Each structure stands twice: as C-alpha cells, then as structure tokens.
Amino acid sequence: MTKIENATTANFECTSSSQVQYAFLDSGVGGLPYLQFLCKKHPASSCLYVADTKHFPYGEKTKEEVIHFSKEIVQKIIEVASPSVIIIACNTMTVCALDVLRHTFDIPFVGTVPAIKTAANLTQSKNIALIGTKRTVEDEYIRKMNCDLAQGCSLFHSDEGELVKDIEEGLAFAPIKEQIDRVLAIVKSFERHNCDTLILGCTHFLHLRSAFIEAGKQCTPTINIVDSLEGVVKQALRLSPCKNNVVPPAPCRAFYASGIESIQDLEKYDEYSLHSGLKLLKDLSLTSILKSMYQH
Ligand code: DGL
Fold first, then answer.
1. Catalytic residue status for 90
2. How far is the CA of 59 from the centre of ligand 1 (A)?
3. CB 3.0 to 4.6 Å from 255: which of 88, 149, 218, 278, for a disulfide?
4. Is the pTM of this model over 0.85?
C-alpha cells in the first residue's frame, strides 16, 4: 500500500461527512462556471462537481424522466460525499425536480432559475428574451415566474438545445470569433420583438458569456445579457458559509461524469476538468474523492 492510500484510508472514517462542502450538479458541463465563480471567491472551498452525462440532455426528456434521474444522482451524491449543500446548477432540473428533491432529501439545495427578475429590473423596452432548453422555456414554472416577477413585460423565448449540445462537445474552447458567429443569429432573432435584455436560461450558455455579450452589442437596440451566476453562488454561500479549513492536504476539487463511453468523452471531460481546476474521477466514491485530494 502506498503512502497516499494509507493516508486516504486513515482519513476515511473521520472525515467522510466533511470532505465536500459544495456539490454542484448538472446534466453536463453547464454548472462549471458556477463552481469556478465560487472557487474564485473562496480558493480553499471544497467542491465536488457531478455531471449526469449518462442522461444528457435533460432538456429533451419528459418532466418525469428529469425527476427520476435527478433523484437517482442526488441520492448517490449524498451517499458518497454528504455535502453541506447541493447546488442544482441546471435550470431544467430545477424547474422540473427541485420541489421533489427538497421533499425527498433532508439537505439544503440551491436551485438555478432564469434571471427573470434581474431582466425585468433592467429592461427599458419591457420586452425580454429567454433562451434555454425546450423543457425549461416551455414549463409552466416560467410562465408563473414571468407573471409574478416581470409584470408589464413581455417574455419571448426560444429553445436552443442544439447550442447546448455544441457546448457540451467543446464549443467553450473554440476561438471567441467562432463562438460569436454561433450565437449572433440567436441573439439577433430577438431584435424583431424589440427586446433589449436576454436571459441565459441554461447554465451551459455561461461558457459563452463573452460571446453573447459581444453579439448583444451588435444588435439594435443593444441587447443586454443577464444570468443567474452571482445570485446562485451568493445563495449557496448564505446557506453554507465557506469553511475554508476542511481537509488536508488540499481542498476537494473533483469532477465526475456519469456517462464516459469513449476516449473522446474522456478527453473532452478531462479538458473541461483541467480548465476548471478539477480532477476527473474514475468513479463516484468517497475513496476516489479522497485520493484526488492527496494526489495534487
Ligand atoms: N444545463 C442545463 C440547464 O441549465 C441543461 C442541459 C440539458 O439539456 O441537459 O438547463
């Protein structure tokens, strides 16, 4: 047995409930910008990122399927990592399953929903655009949010599931010009409705935030881009203030994807992990999480 394994085993029992403070969950890589933002604010925070890529894309599933898969993966996260808080860094999962998750599991959750209130405060034209997955933009939850939080505003939406897939495939690493070319037509399509504010209602789109902002500047009127990044991280820190002192010898920075089926998948998720300062796990177990912390 190596020294690393000894140390891992020795710490297994006594630290199992405190290794991971924040667990982020998405169907894919969408929640990574949220984790990065939290880690930038709190470099010693302990974070686990779980991508349920086995069932990606959630946006094309039925509501019942989204609930089923979310419950399954949350159960697993709690079993192996017992985090202080789970951040559902996925609009689709939040809209479809957050209520059920809160009723099922005795742990604090933070959800991610389109930033409709922020957009309503910002818009001058009172015409707001929303892009997200089909499951999100067509959900009753969004219609209700619009009535409650954006009275007097009109909400125009479009389902951009293909863009979500491109980002999952690595568009986040493409040159900015290519990213702008990809999103410009999407943003411009809202000009005809006189929208001046566009909500990024899918966490994947945050990877292209700069491209969206640039595309928005090329529209008439200029379209401002809003998202839920700061609000979500703020709420996570409110529910569980960063401990900053957990675990030797390094804070947990682990990434697990449930559906790696090819070398290409492995390379892709390895790149996303590296880019976010995370270590890719082979399986979702406490032993893997601990090992990742000792192998820095
Ligand atoms: N990132 C997810 C969201 O915010 C959706 C991705 C998917 O379709 O699985 O809605």
1. yes
2. 6
3. 278
4. yes
